[in-house]
TrEMBL record:
Domain of life: Bacteria
Signal peptide from the UniProt entry: 1-29
Transmembrane segments: none
Database matches in Pfam families: Peripla_BP_2
Protein family according to the UniProt entry: Belongs to the bacterial solute-binding protein 8 family.
Lineage start: Bacteria, Bacillati, Bacillota, Clostridia, Eubacteriales
Protein name, as recorded: ABC transporter substrate-binding protein
Keywords (A to Z) from UniProt: Signal
PANTHER family: MOLYBDATE-BINDING PROTEIN MOLA, VITAMIN B12-BINDING PROTEIN
Amino acid sequence: MFRNVCKLTLTFAIGLLILAGCGSEKAIADNVLTSSQNNNTDVVQSENEVADVAEVSPIKRQLLKSADEVQITETEVIFKDDSGRDVITIQKNPQKVAVLYGSHACLWKEAGGDIKIGIGGKGAEALYKDQIGHNFLEDEGVVTIAKSSSAKTWDIEAILAEQPDLIICSTAMNGYSTLSAPAEAANIPVIAITYSGVGDYLKWFKVFCNINSKPELWDSIANKTVDDIAHIIESAPVENTPKVLSILPKTDAVSANLAASDMGVIIEQLHAINVVDDLAEDLSSVRVDINLETMLATNPDMIFVQCIGSEEEARELMDSHFLDNPVWNSLEAVKNNKIYYMPKRLFHNRPNREYNESYKMMFELLYPEIEL
């Protein structure tokens, strides 16, 4: 009798726990939905998003951190740009967009956008052909407003006279600081961008594809890229990793890429040791000039050379600085022939959807013994 009563009691208790568990799961889901809403704004969220939260790996979640802060409604996209302002709200489906920076134009196009006002010049036009497949400035109805991304060359009145309903520009080269006040006076919204690393790529892709009302591109392009990168990072060892130096040779000096640079981000995320990170006085700095004495003191295992142009041009610049120099030749990386010229397409330009190829190449150089 006592055993039967215990059995009934236990069965009843288990039933209560199951019901409580179901209630907790519903409460968790409700909390996720509630926290994603912005006060009086009805945020658009698919039914699968709540279920997917638990399935995202910690590394992928970190990569998506900035993108997850972007809020989408039926008619607007709400986010922080890099101007220092509070969140801004951009109406979906602008009809006449000006993109005044080459790599941003490529990303806007990749995310389903159309451009009516753009920036030309040899470098930008080569980039358009490489990433978009053609120079869109030659398309009918497109206005080339300047031949450089430097705001010093811009005719602001001419840009505003085209009456764009959205302007996208960089915080670099005085773009935003030059344009923001006149655009605000003309009631034209401006998005200011500082773009470095795959986290920024994912954020801006999400912003752009939703402004263009093409959220399906997130799954077909950006989500595939971040899945590949998360797998590569997860495969990287965290101990006994190589010491590396990433440099950008110029005519008059050689600069080292710090953690805030595009290449520095990849090096850090793949757990290699960037030997110059301690040299940065300003943590937001992208590069710092470096001399042979510092190279010798840090003595890296590997040296990655960032190519602004072709590999041949980069080799000529390196020779002009280091050819037959005994200090250079005493470096471990030089003695072991571990100097690598990193292609412009993947490590100087913003590779956008091909960021996974950048990570893959870097991983294979750092860890040739590990198969992805």
